[in-house]
Each structure stands twice: as structure tokens, then as C-alpha cells.
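Propose amino acids for all 383 sites.
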């Protein structure tokens, strides 16, 4: 009997000890992660550098973008891909007015009003896709599916192609009917598309947001339309974005709507603002909205939401930035010489003035960035 009591007592003590150790481990991990997420940097070191001195053309900041494991730098005469501190490939072309999109390992680029899209993968391989009418905009998915808005002068079209150039779907709209497509976005898997339309009825204009599904979910729906929303009575909706496969966001000039799409779309969250939206940006998990401020103390106000609509961060900004983006649970912004980073907990993790002109600062991974100047592409690490 005593032996049984001793065994039960030992088991109980072991259970308590293990439980305490597990709790301590979780607390240690939590504290470490919190300290890591709020680590403050004061400088940087250069890991790699590629000279651009041999190029006699300039590239604007909007023509430098994160792509795959590096960055894309392009203008009307060509495109280069840099990764790991070296130029991986470059391609020459002559596109006076390019429209472009990229996702994961694919780039879609076309000359506006032409009838040809060039699809480029991360190895530099190219495929030409011919459209039925002149191109206004292009989108590409993670799978290489290309969506293009087209205009023949009388009507607008949305055409979808797979990465081999095979047509998947096509739809036609007119301004007095369904409306004119202002913006489109395709999901990463290439099966869903959202479009913002501007229509005219009885002399007044109205925006609406329409969802399409090109999988089996939409095969029995008319024109593969699985949902439409027209609550934007007096609001223009110039920007719609799939931020992940099941979440899309519509940005109006004074409101935004988060849509959840499992099979058919539904409104997950919507908010209207007194002030007009000045700028928006997003990651796959967070949505950032910037407003102009009338205060003498700060120029802009930033609000950050998660995909459910929960507000996770608000910051009054006294810094007039030219670029802004998310890096994990941080906001990174820069102008032509200064860069700042704020964590969602409000900690200023980085505030640094470079001694060179910043054309673009592109997050890579961990604490590494591509710093593009007028003369070099540098891979840097914060320290």
C-alpha cells in the first residue's frame, strides 16, 4: 500500500515538474520573441554590392520591386533581376508605356494599348501571350495565370490565360451596363478574380465590386460571377487587392471593405472614414491605410488592421515618406535618405539617415534589405 502511495506521489511530482518546465519554456520563448520583435538597430553593414555605373539610364523608385528572392529593376528599355548580391539575368525590350504585375516567381509586363503580354519566370524564361484587344492593365498569379483588362473603344473585356497562353475565360462589359473595370486583382492560386467597376445609370456614377471564380465553384454561375457588392453609393473604388487566397480588400476614397472568400464572398469588415484615404499598402496578413493630417505636429496618420478588421496599430507620423511597407509585424518607411521602422507595439526600431540617395529599399528576409541607389544595388543587414 505504501509503495503504491509513493509511486503515485512520484508521478504527481513529476507531472508538476514537467508542467512547470513547459510553462517556463513557453514564457522564455514569448519573452525572447517579444525582445526580438522589438530589437533596436542603429546602423547597417553591406553584405554584397553590384555596381550600376555601366548603365546610362535612370530608374524611378516605382520601377524597383521585390521579386522572388531578390529585386527587379526595370524601365522602358529592359529589366534586370538581382539576387544574392549579383545580377541573375537581364532582358532588353522597348516598351514606352509599360503595365506590369508580379507574384512569387512570375512577372507579367505589356505595353499599354498593345495586344501582347510577356510572361517571365524567375529564371528569365519568357512566353508571349496574345490578347484579343488592346491592353489596359495586367495581373499575374503565383501559378502564372495572367488576367488582363482590355478595351476596343466600344466595350471593355477581362481575359484570363494560363501560363502557357491558353485562354481560360473572357468577359465583356460596357459603361452603361455592367460598368468600366477600374481595377482587378487575381488570387495567388489563379482561381479567383475581383474587379472594381464604375457604371453610369440615370446620369450618375456608382462603383461596385464583383467576384469571379474559375474553379469548379463558379462553373455553374453566369459569367462565373459568384458575388457582387454595390454599397459604394458615392464612393469611388480605385483599388481592389487579393492579399491572400481567401481575403480581398476594396479601397474606396473614404472607406474600405475586407471580403472573406471561402467559396462565395462575404463582407468580413467595413469601415468608413471622415478623412479621405491618401495611401494604402498590405501584406498577406495586414492592411495599412494612411491619411493626411491637418495637425501642425504631424503630417499623416497610419492605421493598421489585420484581415478580420481588428485595428492592431495606429501611429501619427511626422515623417514625409515616399515608400512604406510591412516587414512582419513592423512598418518600414523611407524617403530619399532616411529610413524608419516601427513595431506594432510602437517601438521605433530603426531611424537612420544614409549618406547616399535612396531610390528603393526592398525587404528581403530577416534583417536584410536591398538598397538601390543611383550607382549600386547593395544587400545590407541592419545591426
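Proposal:
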Amino acid at each position: 500500500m505504501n509503495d503504491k502511495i509513493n509511486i503515485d506521489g512520484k508521478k504527481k511530482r513529476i507531472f508538476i515538474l514537467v508542467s512547470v518546465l513547459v510553462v517556463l519554456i513557453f514564457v522564455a520563448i514569448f519573452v525572447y520573441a517579444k525582445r526580438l520583435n522589438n530589437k533596436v538597430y542603429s546602423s547597417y553593414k553591406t553584405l554584397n554590392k553590384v555596381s550600376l555605373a555601366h548603365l546610362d539610364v535612370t530608374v524611378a523608385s516605382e520601377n524597383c520591386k521585390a521579386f522572388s528572392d531578390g529585386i527587379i529593376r526595370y524601365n522602358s528599355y529592359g529589366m534586370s533581376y538581382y539576387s544574392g548580391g549579383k545580377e541573375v539575368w537581364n532582358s532588353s525590350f522597348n516598351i514606352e508605356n509599360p503595365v506590369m504585375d508580379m507574384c512569387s516567381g512570375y512577372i507579367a509586363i505589356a505595353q499599354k494599348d498593345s495586344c501582347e503580354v510577356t510572361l517571365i519566370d524567375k529564371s528569365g524564361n519568357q512566353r508571349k501571350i496574345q490578347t484579343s484587344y488592346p491592353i489596359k492593365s495586367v495581373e499575374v498569379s503565383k501559378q502564372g495565370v495572367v488576367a488582363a483588362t482590355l478595351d476596343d473603344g466600344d466595350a471593355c473585356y477581362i481575359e484570363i490565360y494560363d501560363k502557357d497562353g491558353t485562354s481560360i475565360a473572357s468577359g465583356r462589359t460596357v459603361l452603361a451596363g455592367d460598368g468600366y473595370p477600374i481595377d482587378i486583382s487575381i488570387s495567388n492560386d489563379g482561381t479567383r478574380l475581383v474587379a472594381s467597376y464604375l457604371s453610369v445609370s440615370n446620369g450618375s456614377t456608382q462603383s461596385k465590386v464583383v467576384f469571379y471564380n474559375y474553379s469548379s465553384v463558379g462553373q455553374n454561375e453566369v459569367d462565373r460571377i459568384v458575388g457582387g457588392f454595390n454599397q459604394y453609393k458615392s464612393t469611388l473604388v480605385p483599388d481592389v487587392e487579393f492579399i491572400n487566397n481567401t481575403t480581398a480588400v476594396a479601397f474606396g476614397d473614404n472607406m474600405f471593405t475586407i471580403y472573406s472568400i471561402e467559396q462565395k464572398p462575404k463582407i468580413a469588415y467595413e469601415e468608413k472614414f471622415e478623412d479621405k484615404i491618401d495611401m494604402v499598402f498590405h501584406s498577406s496578413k495586414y492592411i495599412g491605410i494612411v491619411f493626411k493630417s491637418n495637425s501642425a505636429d504631424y503630417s499623416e496618420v497610419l492605421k493598421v488592421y489585420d484581415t478580420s478588421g481588428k485595428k492592431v496599430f495606429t501611429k501619427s507620423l511626422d515623417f514625409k515618406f515616399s515608400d512604406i511597407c510591412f516587414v512582419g509585424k513592423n512598418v518600414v518607411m523611407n524617403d530619399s535618405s532616411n529610413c524608419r521602422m516601427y513595431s506594432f507595439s510602437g517601438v521605433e526600431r530603426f531611424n537612420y539617415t544614409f549618406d547616399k540617395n535612396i531610390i528603393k529599399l526592398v525587404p528581403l528576409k530577416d534583417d536584410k534589405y536591398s538598397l538601390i541607389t543611383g550607382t549600386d544595388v547593395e544587400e545590407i543587414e541592419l545591426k
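The radius of gyration is 25 Å. The longest strand covers residues 192-201.
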